[in-house]
Amino acid sequence: MTHRSPAAGKPIKTAITDEDGIDFAIIELFFFAYRDFTSDPDQILADYGFGRAHHRVLHFVNRRPGLTVAELLDVLKITKQSLARVLKQLIDTDHIVQLQGPRDRRQRELYPTAKGRALALALARPQSRRIRAALEDSGASERPLIERFLEAMVNPELRAQIDIVPANMSGKSHGDH
Amino acid sequence: MTHRSPAAGKPIKTAITDEDGIDFAIIELFFFAYRDFTSDPDQILADYGFGRAHHRVLHFVNRRPGLTVAELLDVLKITKQSLARVLKQLIDTDHIVQLQGPRDRRQRELYPTAKGRALALALARPQSRRIRAALEDSGASERPLIERFLEAMVNPELRAQIDIVPANMSGKSHGDH
DNA sequence: AAATTACGTCAATAGTACTGACATAATTTC
DNA sequence: GAAATTATGTCAGTACTATTGACGTAATTT
C-alpha cells in the first residue's frame, strides 16, 4: 500500500492557488494565527489538569459575571452535557461559584472567585501580549480596523453576543454597527 | 450543591475589564471569529463523515503537493499516530494519493487527486466568501494590513512555514519580513 | 393541577489527540 | 559489508472534548 491503489485518481502536482477567487493566503494565516494564539494558555492549563474548554468557561464567567448556565451554553455553542463536566471541575476547584438566581430560583448564576479571576487573568496575559506585539508590528494605530475585521468575520446573527460585554471601552468607539 | 460549598471563595460580581492592560476585546473577537470561520466547512465535512483534521490535511496537501508525511506533521503540529487515521481515510476515499519519493524511496510524497482538489476548493469557498465580506466591511484596501497582523500573531520561529507556500501572489507584495 | 422551564445526571458513543513500543524498508555511516 | 539512522506505518492504551438520548427534580407558568 505504499503506492497508489489501482482505482486511485491521478496525482495533481500543481499547488492550489487563488483560482476561483479563493483567498487561501488569509485562510492559512488564520489557521496558523489561531493555532499559536491558543498554544500560550494551553501550556498553563496543563499544569492545572484543565483543557481549552475550561479556559472558555472561565473566560466568559469572568467577562459576564452572573450569567446563567443556559446563557453560557448559548455563547459557547456546546451542549449541556459537554459543559457539565468542565463546569463541575471548575466549581470543585473553587474557581467558580454558583448562586441561586434572584428572580428565578431555578437558575444558577455563575460567578468567578478570586482564584478564578486570577487564573483567567493569567491565561489572558500571554494572549494579550501576543496581540499587542502583533498590533505594533502592523502599525499601532490600526487597532480599530483589526477589531472591525474580526467582528465582521462573526456570523451577523451572533454578533449580539459580542456586545453583551459590559465594559471593554478603552478607546473602542465603534458605535456604528 | 446548588449553592456554594462552605470553603468556596466569595463571588466576584464585577466583570473583568482591561485591567492589567489585558486586551479582552480582541481575545474574545478572535475566539468568535475562529468559531464561525470553522463552522462553514464543518457542515460540509459532516456529509463525508470527515472532521476538522481531514480538512487541515487536505488543505496542506493541496497547498504543497508532494510534501512528505514528516513535513505535514511539522506543519500541523500533531503526532504521527494522530495523522495516521485521518490520512488513511483520505487515501482510502481517493482524495489523496501517495507516491514513492524520487530521491529517497522511504518517503511518501502526498498529492491530491481531482476529487481531493475539488473537496478542498468546496471547503475553502465559504471561508473565502466570509473573508471577502469581512474585508469589504472593514474597507477593501486594508487586506495587506490584515495579512500582516495575522502573520505577526504566528510564532516567529514558525513563520517560515507560511512562506513555503508556492504561489499565492495576487497583489500580496509584502516582501518586507 | 398540569405543563413548561432550568438545571443536573447517567449511559453510550465519536473525533481528535496523546505516549510508548515495535516493525520494515531504505539510506547513511563506519 | 555491517551497523546505525531515518521515514514511515501500526498496535495498544489513554485522555479530552464533544455528541445524543433519557430521566429526574425543583421552580415557575398556565
What's the structural domain tally of chain A? 1
- Assembly type of the chains comes to homodimer
Largest sheet of chain A: 3 strands, antiparallel
- The CATH class label of chain A is Mainly Alpha
Strand content of chain A: 5-15%
The span between the termini of chain A is 56 Å
Helix content of chain A: 40-55%
Identify the biggest protein-protein contact and residues per side: A-B, 95 and 95 residues
Order of helices and strands of chain A: HHEHHEEHHH
User: Which spans of chain A have pLDDT < 50 for at least 5 consecutive residues?
Assistant: 167-177
Task: Give the beta-strand count of chain A.
Answer: 3
> Structural class of the secondary structure composition of chain A?
mainly alpha
Q: What's the gyration radius of chain A in Å?
A: 21 Å
Task: Find the CATH topology of chain A.
Answer: Arc Repressor Mutant, subunit A
**Name of the CATH architecture of chain A:** Orthogonal Bundle
Q: By CATH's scheme, which homologous superfamily of chain A applies?
A: Winged helix-like DNA-binding domain superfamily/Winged helix DNA-binding domain
Average pLDDT rating of chain A: 84
Q: Any idea what the shape of chain A is?
A: globular
Describe the 3D structure.
- Chain A has 177 residues and is mainly alpha-helical.
- The first copy, chain A, has a single domain (24-154), classed as Orthogonal Bundle (Arc Repressor Mutant, subunit A), CATH 1.10.10.10.
- Chain A is built from seven helices and three strands; from the N terminus they run ααβααββααα.
- In chain A, a hairpin with a 7-residue loop joins strand 2 (96-100) and strand 3.
- In chain A, helix 1 runs antiparallel to helix 5 (114-137), helix 2 crosses helix 4 (80-92) and helix 2 (52-63) crosses helix 5.
- The termini of chain A are far apart.
- Residues 167-177 of chain A have low confidence and may be disordered.
- At the A-B interface, helix 1, helix 2, strand 2, strand 3 and helix 5 of A face helix 1, helix 2, strand 2, strand 3 and helix 5 of B.
- Chain A binds a DNA duplex (30 and 30 nucleotides) through residues 1-2, 51-53, 68-70, 78-82, 84-86, 88, 101, 104-108.
